[in-house]
Amino acid sequence: MEVHHHPDLHHKQKPWKEYLLEGLMIFIAVTLGFFAESLREHIADKSKEHEIISALRNDIKRDTANLENMIHYYMPTHNRWVDSVESDINTISIKGNEHRITRAMINATNWNIYTPPEIALNILKNSGNFNFIKNREVKEEILNYNTIVNEYIKYSEFVTAVQHDVDTASQKFISRAVSRKLIAKLYISAGNHAFGFVTDSDIPQDMVFTNYDKPAFLSYMAKLNQVDYLLNDLLGMYNRVMTEEKKLLELLKTEYHLED
Hints:
260 residues; mainly alpha
């Protein structure tokens, strides 16, 4: 009769060194996986940070150009028109000079208020994006910039309310139909400056006022002077914002090795 031998199911125990080696290999594999994931996240974070910084820098560069325009073109021109209104109301007859006075009044009340850069403000509103920025000095400078911008926004809201009061007062002399046409002309004439002023040919040749009461014109001038004072106060803020922007741009260029 054939004899069947059963296999020996008792395996020989592996040496302890093999267990140690297997454990070490598992540990190394897990560790490498952890570091690979950390590296991947680090690279992704750096890429996102660079994207945010690039967007911030480009937005602020455009904003400094806008502020330069406001400071060196709009405000001096606006101031000249305010001076012209005051001079005309105080030194010449209102009757017979409607065309000249209307042009000065419309241009003196062509309000242009600076609007801070949207991308920069959105970065600060979004804590997730802001946290991608790892450079402590850059974050502090962005927060300093934000503080100055917020101060400006609060003040500009007050100025806008006072400007509305002047616009309402001008309706005592200039009809609604004429005002609408001239306001439309302001936007058409804006051109490369993002704001414009009406020309002599824009004013109706047969221009007449709905009211020729001199005290009413003087009262209007007093309101306009109040806004002029506030706008020139804003001019100081424009310079503060632009100084802070240039400081931030220089810091971003240095810390992130950016090209002009």
